[in-house]
Write a structure and sequence with these properties.
By secondary structure, this protein is an alpha+beta fold. It is built from 6 helices and 12 strands. The protein is 31% helix and 29% strand. The longest helix is centred in the middle third of the chain and has 13 residues.
């Protein structure tokens, strides 16, 4: 049996969010520059700084440095990066439109990613379960493995219980905590810790 409960550890007030955001973004230069090419954002300026802070990935074949679309959306949303297409600078709404052409869940990923980053967590691309992120405990990125695997879901979206059970089992086997992030219709992200529960056999009951 799969059980889910609201994880109170993630329910911080806005003052805490603001403080954590300031800490994790401290020192990021506003001159970061990326270019939207075929549904990906190629980093033109600032790749070393972004890599150090847990953003993006290097493509082995070309050695180019790219951002995942939710990362680019987050940096543009917070005015930490300029993103161009051709010779024109894109607005946030234009980048959202461009992202959705390649990935219909791009906005869902962005909303959960933004919430995690705003709370001071480093979130990286997941293991391919279902719009998931590897999430590191505060201050542990680069020194310890990810503690959580957070899967993003929109409120009302259906997921087969067999798929959920299999995902929870695989994540738990990795030694990580499975978390479901549900985006409510008003945009708030609520986190649920998910695990398996086994009822013990009481044995034969005499009647």
């Amino acid at each position: 049996m799969v059980k889910a409960r609201k994880d109170e550890r993630y329910n911080y007030d806005n003052s805490d969010d603001a403080e954590d955001t300031a800490k994790i973004e401290e020192g990021i230069e506003e001159s970061l520059l990326g270019e939207l090419i075929d549904g990906r954002v190629l980093v033109k300026v600032g790749m070393e700084e972004l890599s150090r802070r847990g953003y993006g990935y290097r493509e082995e074949s070309s050695k180019n440095y790219y951002l995942y679309m939710y990362e680019a959306l987050y940096l543009l949303y917070n005015d930490k990066m300029s993103i161009i297409k051709g010779d024109r600078e894109l607005t946030f709404d234009e980048l959202v439109d461009g992202a959705l052409k390649y990935d219909t869940t791009a906005l869902t990923k962005f909303l959960v990613y933004r919430d995690l980053r705003n709370r001071g967590y480093v979130a990286r691309e997941g293991f391919g379960f279902n719009d998931d992120f590897r999430v590191y405990e505060r201050g542990e990125y680069g020194t310890k493995p990810a503690r959580y695997v957070v899967t993003a879901l929109n409120e009302g979206r259906e997921i087969k219980i067999d798929n959920l059970s299999s995902m929870v089992e695989q994540i738990s086997t990795m030694g990580k905590e499975p978390i479901i992030a549900v985006i409510e219709r008003r945009g708030e992200v609520i986190y649920y810790k998910v695990g398996k529960m086994h009822f013990s056999d009481r044995g034969k009951v005499n009647t």
